[in-house]
Amino acid sequence: MEIFKIIEPTVTKVPVVISIPHAGTFIPEDIKSKMDPEISSQLDDTDWFIDKLYSFATELGITIITANYSRWVVDLNRDPENHALYSDGRVITDVVTITDFNGNKIYNDDHTPNQQEVSRRVELYHKPYHKKLNEFLQKTKAEFGKVLLFDAHSIRKSVPGIRPEDFPDLILGDNDETSASPELIKTTIDSLQNKGYGFSHNHPFKGGYITRSFGNPKENIHALQLEMCKTNYMDSSETIYDEANARRIQLVLKETLVNLIETSNKI
């Protein structure tokens, strides 16, 4: 199984790269055999179908990199040294997590991945994805003089382990306005607000490890994370892709990306 899949643009390339780190579902058998079979059959924290939702982006000239492995093998949006992204009391999942977002144990009672196993997975799965993503960003920056990384995510509407309230439909994260230029941030906010979806900026998510580690506006490398509720494009059970529902949010996403391309060309 390849660690990631690269989807090249179908028209002239633009200085935008979409990263989809959590849509993968593959778990090697040696790892899966140590997991609780009921939990591992659900993969509840997967960003289900987010790669399908954004598939239109190649028609805008955008390159997409999407992970094939489950985030329960290794979480590509976590610090490999396990420095926590938040400290507000929510369930914190590590680069190799042992629980889901609600604190439910993933592994059988007699197994917890040790540090050697964590390091092995970081070397095998985490580092290659980040290396390839960095190559794309550097290559695109060399070609255009700047690059925007758009990190695409989704989550259940309600995850009590993170917060008791439902999430807003769309949550833009830019590490408290430090991972991208003010112009790109404003463009994104203007594109997402008042479109019939609840919107929030940097709360309760302000961008994970990918956004924070790659975003460096002073070097003309910009990074934004968009978290969205699965109810935006799936059915009410959040298990089945809903084509009609997805088309509505795709209109907003397409407008946002087109506007970001235009802004990128000006900065």
From TrEMBL:
The lineage of its organism: Bacteria, Pseudomonadati, Bacteroidota, Flavobacteriia, Flavobacteriales. This is N-formylglutamate deformylase. Pfam families: FGase. SUPFAM superfamilies: Zn-dependent exopeptidases (SSF53187). Gene3D superfamilies: Zn-dependent exopeptidases (3.40.630.40). InterPro entries: N-FG_amidohydro. It comes from Epilithonimonas hungarica.
